[in-house]
Amino acid sequence: MVEKVLMCGNGAVGEGAIQAGCRHYFGYPITPQNELTAYMAERLGELGGVFIQSESELAAINMVFGASASGARAMTSSSSPGISLKQEGISYIAAAELPCVIVNIMRAGPGLGDITPSQADYFQAVKGGGHGDYRLITIGPASVQELYDWTAKAFYLADKYRNPVMILGDGFLGQMMEPLEVKKIEELKLPPKTWALTGAKDRSANIIRTLMLKVGELEEHNKKIQDKYKRIEKELIEYEAVLTDDAEIILVAYGTCARICKESVFLLRKEGIKAGLIRPITLWPYPSAVIRKISNNIKCILTVEMNAGQMVEDVKLAVMGRCPVHFYGRMGGGVPTSKEIVDEIKGLEIK
Amino acid sequence: MKKIFGKPECMTDKPFHYCPGCGHGIVHRLIGEVVDELGIQDRTIGVPPVGCAVVMYHYFNIDMTEAPHGRTPAVATGIKRVHPDKVVFTYQGDGDLAAIGTGEIIHAANRGERITTIFVNNAVYGMTGGQMAPTTLVGQKTTTTPLGRDARLIGYPIKISEMLAITDGSIYIERVAVNKPANIIKAKKAIKKAFQIQLEDRGFSMVEVLSQCPVNLGLTSQKAAEWIDNTLMKTYPLGVIKDKSGE
Amino acid sequence: MQRILTAGFGGQGIVSMGKMLAYAGMKEDKHVSALPSYGPEMRGGTANCSVIISEKEIASPFISHPDTLIAMNQASLDKFSELVLSDGLIIANSSLVKVNSDIRNKIKVVEISADHIAVEFGNLKVANMVALGVFVRETAEIKLDSLKTALEKIFPPRRHNLIPINIKALEKGFKR
For position A151, what pLDDT does the model report? Predict the structure, then answer.
């Protein structure tokens, strides 16, 4: 067994990237993800990789664009306002089908907001975020270990599908310290990046472009990437189910909220209330099928988020009226307690 | 039959889409000739701008990628840091470089990125249809300055080359023009030197090319070329702005 | 399961205490989490850290009601004392904290003049270690040796010269 180290979530993301072979990081400081930027500066310094503190988030995401277009595993990280700034570049990266990893350690908004944790960028992450029809593979880890494991895996998924992957954490996950096993990352087989910019030596020139002016060309390109998204929806769904087998009430939550909800489930069970938890790990693609299936056999669902109600829309789309879907949320840096959630469940009119 | 003149080897046979009298075709050709002469076609990577020259990759057998408007130097930075042994250049217009991408070009220059920038300044926006550029002259009429650029309202033509020259990371910056043969010969020399500085791993190099956009200046090709001599150069004089290559 | 809230001024080593406790618990193969409050302040503000040491997997790393509050300044005691479970414990740095009889009547309070002891050792910064020593003695939740080992992990190698004085402070709190 690998020796455990105590590490904060931001550091775990960084080490996951390093272990996955990421040697190109570009970022601009913003709280509460600064430990990650500093971690990459230190580790990439040791390893002779490339670390650039860019002049802006705009520059950072486009440096990632260039590095990814050149065939490298590249990453940037930021927190909510900075992720907003990156959206143009993310749209281009998705359109050009370039692999990369983008980390959003969410803080409370809107606007400058503050640095407290939040999940209010869910829509932005899973519905596209920038202009045009595109999707990011979006992962919502809930522990320091998962931040490590999934960041490492994100590079593989990005390369496999030639698609940007977003790690969606929050301020608490970034700051929280837990034991981490720095597992060795197994290199899975991937096709060579024959499309990358390496100089047109003994081949015709590689062109990376998203401008498609020929009649019908852009529609064809859109169809192609939508087909890819359908494939991803088929192949990549991850979630955790806690005590769902006999559950009458299901909590749905991800990330930090899921940790709290797990405790609420245990508290409810102690009082004889049959509660369970579905924790989506992939936020896009969303585990709609599992939620739809379970909704046939339960009394109701309560979705808990640190926002005004975003993921609950995906839950409702999955359930399609099969059972009532309720929402409990805290905003602006508020974090629900396990007792608040228990009280909310007890207060529901359950038929 | 003996061939006495042809396109550079690194360029394709595709005809340019540019308007009659436009300077872009000339600048493309100069880059092609320089790449051939330096023998770097198979290790050059280009980043065209958003603007008229966005599809310049059609005209070269050189790896290229588009970049979001103005982020061209950031994309080039990412490429160069992955491939320090390759020759990376950006090709940017006055909107891409001197307006929306001001931040990126200043910091790329200041970091001394080992990239070469070809900055085409024609004092007007071409692709979007003749709007004011940051380099538009005071009094110059465009679709967004119908009464002429009023400095009190919208400021002055920006002198980006002079600004970049004060960054310690920039090694060589020269302003040239492609409005007549004598200037074109000088322009080619400057572009070649800029690439050589990158090959020597010295730092950031840039050539600002005053170019003609007859359609959006509302002039004939000949008048547009003359306008560069008689008017544009008064604000943007030609010559070496910075050269630390000998140091 | 032991839920500990360390609290005090920024600069008093509050988060370091949390890390030390978590590290020590981890060394003993327990499940641990440490959740620092984070704020715009880097120095001198209020800081706290929620630590859980548990035999079982930790669901939520958040603490609504701590078993133990380590209050290193008055503001922390005033803010958090009423959250402490009735069978819990408050360790108060009596150099800076006055505990009134109301609190004393409800919850077990152990006072230690951690700042004074630290100053006697010649380094005010080890006051937090004095308080941790008290924690080990009062709760036996972790071993003193585990905390000593943790010091090597918490301090970067260039600061390892400070480990002996920190160990002395831990032992002083533990024995008193």
Answer: 98
